[in-house]
Amino acid sequence: MLDTMTFTKIVGGVCGTFLVFLLGKWGAEALYHTGGGHGGEQTASYVIEVADTGSAEPEETVDFATLLASADPAKGEKVFGKCRACHKIDGTDATGPHLNGVVGREIDSVAGFGYSGALEQVGDVWTPEHLNTFLTSPKSAAPGTTMGFNGLPKDTDRANLIAYLQTLEG
Please, are residues 142 and 121 in contact by the beta-carbon 8 Å criterion? Predict the structure, then answer.
Protein backbone atom coordinates (compact mmCIF):
# COMPACT_ATOMS: atom_id res chain seq x y z
CA MET A 1 0.00 0.00 0.00
CA LEU A 2 2.92 2.32 0.43
CA ASP A 3 3.59 3.23 -3.14
CA THR A 4 5.58 6.10 -4.60
CA MET A 5 2.61 8.46 -4.85
CA THR A 6 1.71 8.07 -1.14
CA PHE A 7 5.31 8.67 -0.13
CA THR A 8 5.43 11.78 -2.36
CA LYS A 9 2.25 13.12 -0.76
CA ILE A 10 3.66 12.64 2.75
CA VAL A 11 6.94 14.40 1.92
CA GLY A 12 5.02 17.19 0.16
CA GLY A 13 2.75 17.65 3.19
CA VAL A 14 5.71 17.89 5.58
CA CYS A 15 7.55 20.33 3.30
CA GLY A 16 4.39 22.39 2.78
CA THR A 17 3.83 22.61 6.53
CA PHE A 18 7.43 23.64 7.07
CA LEU A 19 7.05 26.31 4.36
CA VAL A 20 3.89 27.68 6.01
CA PHE A 21 5.71 27.97 9.36
CA LEU A 22 8.66 29.75 7.74
CA LEU A 23 6.39 32.21 5.94
CA GLY A 24 4.44 32.77 9.19
CA LYS A 25 7.67 33.53 11.04
CA TRP A 26 8.79 35.93 8.32
CA GLY A 27 5.41 37.70 8.34
CA ALA A 28 5.37 38.00 12.14
CA GLU A 29 8.88 39.48 12.16
CA ALA A 30 7.83 42.00 9.53
CA LEU A 31 4.73 43.01 11.52
CA TYR A 32 6.21 42.96 15.00
CA HIS A 33 9.74 44.18 14.53
CA THR A 34 11.70 43.86 17.77
CA GLY A 35 15.11 44.92 16.55
CA GLY A 36 16.57 48.17 17.77
CA GLY A 37 17.89 51.12 15.83
CA HIS A 38 18.21 51.54 12.09
CA GLY A 39 18.65 48.63 9.77
CA GLY A 40 17.32 46.08 12.23
CA GLU A 41 20.51 45.58 14.24
CA GLN A 42 19.96 44.32 17.76
CA THR A 43 21.05 46.54 20.61
CA ALA A 44 21.86 45.25 24.04
CA SER A 45 20.58 47.12 27.04
CA TYR A 46 20.90 46.76 30.74
CA VAL A 47 19.92 48.59 33.90
CA ILE A 48 22.47 50.31 36.07
CA GLU A 49 21.34 50.46 39.66
CA VAL A 50 22.42 53.52 41.61
CA ALA A 51 22.00 54.31 45.25
CA ASP A 52 19.11 56.63 46.08
CA THR A 53 20.59 59.88 47.31
CA GLY A 54 17.19 61.30 48.16
CA SER A 55 15.61 64.32 46.61
CA ALA A 56 17.26 67.70 46.89
CA GLU A 57 14.20 69.14 48.57
CA PRO A 58 11.94 67.19 50.90
CA GLU A 59 8.41 66.78 49.62
CA GLU A 60 5.85 68.91 51.34
CA THR A 61 3.04 67.00 52.93
CA VAL A 62 -0.14 68.95 53.35
CA ASP A 63 -2.60 67.70 55.91
CA PHE A 64 -6.08 66.81 54.74
CA ALA A 65 -7.80 69.65 56.63
CA THR A 66 -5.77 72.20 54.67
CA LEU A 67 -6.57 70.45 51.38
CA LEU A 68 -10.27 70.33 52.23
CA ALA A 69 -10.30 74.03 53.14
CA SER A 70 -8.95 74.93 49.70
CA ALA A 71 -10.95 72.29 47.80
CA ASP A 72 -13.11 73.19 44.79
CA PRO A 73 -16.61 71.64 44.77
CA ALA A 74 -16.90 72.25 41.01
CA LYS A 75 -13.86 70.06 40.41
CA GLY A 76 -15.31 67.57 42.88
CA GLU A 77 -18.46 67.35 40.77
CA LYS A 78 -16.29 66.23 37.87
CA VAL A 79 -14.56 63.65 40.07
CA PHE A 80 -18.03 62.43 41.11
CA GLY A 81 -18.39 61.19 37.52
CA LYS A 82 -16.40 58.12 38.63
CA CYS A 83 -19.04 57.45 41.33
CA ARG A 84 -22.12 57.98 39.16
CA ALA A 85 -22.15 54.43 37.87
CA CYS A 86 -23.15 53.12 41.31
CA HIS A 87 -24.31 56.11 43.39
CA LYS A 88 -27.06 58.66 42.86
CA ILE A 89 -27.56 62.06 44.46
CA ASP A 90 -31.32 62.35 44.09
CA GLY A 91 -32.24 60.34 47.20
CA THR A 92 -32.69 57.03 45.42
CA ASP A 93 -30.40 54.05 45.75
CA ALA A 94 -28.69 52.29 42.87
CA THR A 95 -25.99 49.64 43.13
CA GLY A 96 -24.68 51.73 46.03
CA PRO A 97 -26.61 53.93 48.46
CA HIS A 98 -27.47 57.54 47.57
CA LEU A 99 -24.81 60.05 48.53
CA ASN A 100 -26.78 63.24 49.06
CA GLY A 101 -26.31 64.22 52.69
CA VAL A 102 -23.58 61.62 53.18
CA VAL A 103 -21.17 63.97 55.00
CA GLY A 104 -22.22 63.86 58.64
CA ARG A 105 -24.55 60.89 58.12
CA GLU A 106 -24.17 57.73 60.18
CA ILE A 107 -22.37 54.92 58.40
CA ASP A 108 -24.68 52.09 57.21
CA SER A 109 -27.76 54.22 57.88
CA VAL A 110 -29.64 54.46 54.55
CA ALA A 111 -32.94 52.73 55.19
CA GLY A 112 -33.69 49.83 52.88
CA PHE A 113 -30.14 49.46 51.53
CA GLY A 114 -28.44 46.11 52.17
CA TYR A 115 -24.99 46.88 53.53
CA SER A 116 -22.24 44.26 53.87
CA GLY A 117 -21.40 45.34 57.44
CA ALA A 118 -17.76 45.95 56.57
CA LEU A 119 -18.12 49.75 56.61
CA GLU A 120 -18.47 49.79 60.39
CA GLN A 121 -14.68 49.37 60.52
CA VAL A 122 -14.29 52.90 59.15
CA GLY A 123 -16.16 54.64 61.99
CA ASP A 124 -19.62 55.68 63.18
CA VAL A 125 -20.24 58.80 61.07
CA TRP A 126 -19.09 59.82 57.58
CA THR A 127 -16.82 62.68 58.60
CA PRO A 128 -14.56 64.23 55.94
CA GLU A 129 -11.62 62.37 57.51
CA HIS A 130 -13.43 59.01 57.42
CA LEU A 131 -14.47 59.64 53.81
CA ASN A 132 -10.87 60.51 52.93
CA THR A 133 -9.60 57.27 54.50
CA PHE A 134 -12.29 55.21 52.79
CA LEU A 135 -11.93 56.83 49.37
CA THR A 136 -8.16 56.32 49.36
CA SER A 137 -8.70 52.56 49.14
CA PRO A 138 -12.12 51.13 50.04
CA LYS A 139 -10.86 47.54 50.11
CA SER A 140 -8.09 48.28 52.63
CA ALA A 141 -10.13 50.73 54.74
CA ALA A 142 -13.04 48.30 55.04
CA PRO A 143 -11.92 44.75 54.22
CA GLY A 144 -14.90 42.74 53.06
CA THR A 145 -16.77 45.67 51.54
CA THR A 146 -18.80 44.90 48.44
CA MET A 147 -17.77 48.19 46.85
CA GLY A 148 -15.73 47.36 43.76
CA PHE A 149 -14.13 50.80 43.36
CA ASN A 150 -10.32 50.87 43.67
CA GLY A 151 -10.18 54.33 45.22
CA LEU A 152 -8.90 57.79 44.41
CA PRO A 153 -5.10 57.98 44.72
CA LYS A 154 -4.83 61.79 44.44
CA ASP A 155 -5.35 63.77 47.65
CA THR A 156 -6.73 66.75 45.75
CA ASP A 157 -9.34 64.60 43.97
CA ARG A 158 -10.55 63.22 47.29
CA ALA A 159 -10.67 66.68 48.88
CA ASN A 160 -12.58 68.14 45.90
CA LEU A 161 -15.03 65.22 45.92
CA ILE A 162 -15.69 65.55 49.65
CA ALA A 163 -16.17 69.31 49.25
CA TYR A 164 -18.74 68.58 46.53
CA LEU A 165 -20.49 65.98 48.71
CA GLN A 166 -20.69 68.55 51.51
CA THR A 167 -22.76 70.79 49.23
CA LEU A 168 -25.38 68.09 48.71
CA GLU A 169 -28.24 68.18 51.16
CA GLY A 170 -29.86 65.07 52.58
Answer: yes
Q: Provide the CA 2 distance to its chain's centre, in angstroms.
A: 63
As a whole number of angstroms, the distance between CA 167 and CA 170 comes to 10
Whether 49 is in a domain gets the answer no
Q: How far apart are CA 170 and CA 45, in angstroms?
A: 59
DSSP state of 40: G
Tell which residue, 154, 96, 100, 165, has the closest CA to residue 128.
165
* Whole-structure pTM value: 0.63
CATH number where 132 lies: 1.10.760.10
Exposed / middle / buried, residue 101 (Cβ in 10 Å: 0-12, 13-18, 19+): middle
Strand partners, 106: 125
Flag whether 1 is in a domain: no
pLDDT tens per residue across span 15-35: 999 999 999 988 888 887 665
